[in-house]
Amino acid sequence: MSKPQMAALPILDQAAGLRSLKAAQPVRVIAVTSGKGGVGKTNVSVNLAVALAQTGKQVMLLDGDLGLANIDVMLGLQPSYNLAHVLDGKCTLEDTIMTGPAGVMIVPASSGKRHMAELNSLQHAGLVQAFSELNRPIDVLIVDTAAGIADSVITFSQASQEVIVVVTGDPTSLTDAYALIKVLNRDHGVERVQVLANMVRDASEAQSVYDSLRRVAERFLDVTLSFIGGIPSDDWLKRAVRRQRAVVEAYPNCPASEAFRQLARRADSWGMPNGARGNLEFFVERLVQQPAANSPTGASAPRLAGVAVP
Ligand SMILES: Nc1ncnc2c1ncn2[C@@H]1O[C@H](COP(=O)(O)OP(=O)(O)O)[C@@H](O)[C@H]1O
Ligand SMILES: [Mg+2]
Question: 24-287 has which CATH code?
Fold first, then answer.
């Protein structure tokens, strides 16, 4: 008997998987990103996920920092499998899922150097298939990305319905956030960005961080920025990180936890996306159909908070 054609099988399975998902409910996909590293993306992703799960939502958290995976470290989890194993055909996506606080479903990344843009077409098909086979109800998918304008960051952000850009009051965080928003907007058609000010002293600092970014972004780019609030600089959060716990679960009454719950209420009020575009399969299809990110456009450098921005 002749062997079945290897390439044909995954495509058939994929089509069946996608059909079974057509009737599924829309999934809100949120990418959490930043221009600069160390501004709190992973903490925001984890705590937003847990805060949403605490309100009864089914939340999946995808570690999209493919070079420097760290959601598992942040939560003291020891994954046996990650996304790279799925792509290599060693396990299913279901096998990688770990249960975090409040039942958050966590998909760990590999700590290799693999970028979405480097996957070949069979692996792309495999990824779509992996997500389409997932037989779990999901309301929200949160993607914790790497920092900056790396291809994978652009790819995840462009494929998501909402992009949260995390900034701090540090001028380099602001200029790097502007550079990222510029590339997303000018080269990749992202028209709406949610800005979260992290590690701020108080509400008025959060507002002024947002105002500086908005002034320059709305003047030079065709983009709408929305302010989704601030997370205070909070030693309880640092303590939770050291204990490898989510602060909203470990210290629910501290100021940062209160702010994360408020953020979750805001994210919830965005409402569900309309129609099939909101299904998980479409997120993954958009994800794998992205062309490699272009180099940033060479525009004259505007100034932000007194600092020339790229
Ligand atoms: N709101 C906050 N208050 C105090 N410290 C914070 C806060 N957010 C982040 N940090 C500190 O910054 C570090 C880096 O955060 P992380 O979420 O890993 O950033 P990123 O994912 O952007 O690299 C944390 O380990 C923590 O010590
Ligand atoms: Mg991180």
Answer: 3.40.50.300
